[in-house]
Design goal:
DNA-binding, homodimer, seven-stranded mixed beta sheet, alpha+beta, two-stranded antiparallel ribbon, 245 residues
Chain lengths: 245, 245
DNA sequence: CGATAATGTGTTTAATTTACACATCTAATA
DNA sequence: TATTAGATGTGTAAATTAAACACATTATCG
């Protein structure tokens, strides 16, 4: 019998046996970290919290918690969001799991990173002191332990994802102008886009509903307001295709 | 003090305190499942193993194991691969983590799914009995517990990923003809492609090295053999861009 | 040596992306 | 109320990319 013969350890075992094996190997703590993006003052921001470890009180971290034994992984991420923001219909998606041995000084912790996109206006933070704040992503230097690495991974994920999936609208008010939408994309992608081509692109997708309203209180000609038509999108969304490295 | 004040549980704690918290919440077992794709006889295949649970002995499953406490998550996936295939320079990438409460009857198990692409010719399986075998993905009906869901997720991942990243070559011999490459893409994407446009596309990418050799033992005019130029690709690979839903 | 079956190649057309300029509208100001 | 400032709103030409499509070439097999 070769080593290739093990599946979850030996061969031909009972469910009961596996149960005790599972029991005995619960040596790894599982946590969730949420990278929560917001968009305010034409800047992309991320929600950070001051570490509640005394030793690292000058360092910021992502919002996270250990996963509860009786809690779905996704539910765990939702719970963390809810505690912090007051929730609504948040966009939440799992991105990556970080599981290096030495990544957490308190022991073996494996962390599943989730990204959330929320509208800063609609979700006033429950606590507005130093503990919790929106941080511009440009000036993000250091985070607790490997959290910067997690953030970087999620930011790259966002840059890619926002180009092939309509996430971005979760960062905007329900009704938004095309200028706001373009500002958002420019902030996320960190580059200037041609205004005319940007409009053409979105209009040709045909997922924007003209609300027949205009911006209020802008010191210039107000732009039209639109909503994203999620229903239509779900019907007509394209399957990604085209080989291109 | 609001509920928003908890980070990893209370506030202002010590590393030592967190340590014991981590200790006490190790109630979740962590495992890795590998979805190992192969390509043989112009069919896309997946490596399956017969469940070693007596009760489920008629059901196949993915290759997996519990993550060891002192083992990096990625290393765990490599270990599983190595045990089964004899390894070499395998392509391995994390895809998604599955963490619903009821997904495993032996208790709370969270599973990180990895995808691997291997060349069936180069990696003769260590065990060739019923336990371990290549299964055509077309005729894949049912797998143990939620493994079919995991497989489906990984297959969709592969279909998308193979179009924007040069993974596919890991499924082919070092030297391959363009016909083999096209067969591979047709098998993965499950659709016919235009031969001339396919060639044009890959030649224009300019990542194929003409080996100056031809296929042997084919019952027709032999095609030229190529290698993929990974070095050149790393230098010149394009950043994915272009908004398109 | 002829038949077979796959390789290898190019052009035309359509679709998409990019670059680019000017009139229009509203608010603010004089 | 007229002027200005500053943003909105729109179209076209050029370039690039993708899609459709046919025939000569070459090795093998009988």
């Amino acid at each position: 019998m070769t080593t290739a013969k093990n599946n979850t350890s030996g061969s031909a075992k009972t469910l009961k046996g596996l149960q005790s094996e599972v029991e005995s190997t619960k040596r790894i703590a599982l946590s969730v970290d949420c990278v929560i993006f917001g968009f305010d003052e034409n800047k992309l921001k991320v929600l950070l919290i001051r570490s509640d470890l005394k030793k690292y009180h000058d360092t910021f971290s992502l919002l996270g918690d250990l996963v509860k034994p009786e809690e779905d992984l996704d539910a765990s991420a939702y719970r963390i969001l809810k505690q912090r923001t007051g929730l609504n219909d948040l966009y939440l998606e799992q991105v990556h799991t970080f599981g290096e041995v030495g990544r957490h000084p308190a022991g073996r912790v494996v962390t599943v990173a989730y990204c959330s996109l929320i509208n800063v206006q609609h979700h006033k933070l429950k606590s507005l002191d130093n503990e919790l704040h929106w941080h511009e992503i440009d000036s993000l230097k250091e985070l607790l332990f490997d959290r910067k690495k997690i953030f970087d991974h999620c930011y790259l994920w966002l840059q890619k994802r926002v180009q092939e999936h309509p996430l971005g609208f979760s960062l905007l008010p329900n009704k938004f102008s095309l200028r706001e939408l373009q500002n958002l994309y420019e902030a996320i992608l960190d580059k200037k886009l041609d205004r005319r081509n940007f409009r053409k692109k979105f209009f040709s997708m045909d997922f924007l509903i003209d609300m027949g309203e205009e911006e209020q209180n802008v010191p210039h000609r107000p732009g039209k307001l639109y909503k994203f038509d999620y229903e239509k999108y779900e019907m007509k969304k394209k399957k990604w295709q085209g080989i291109d490295f």
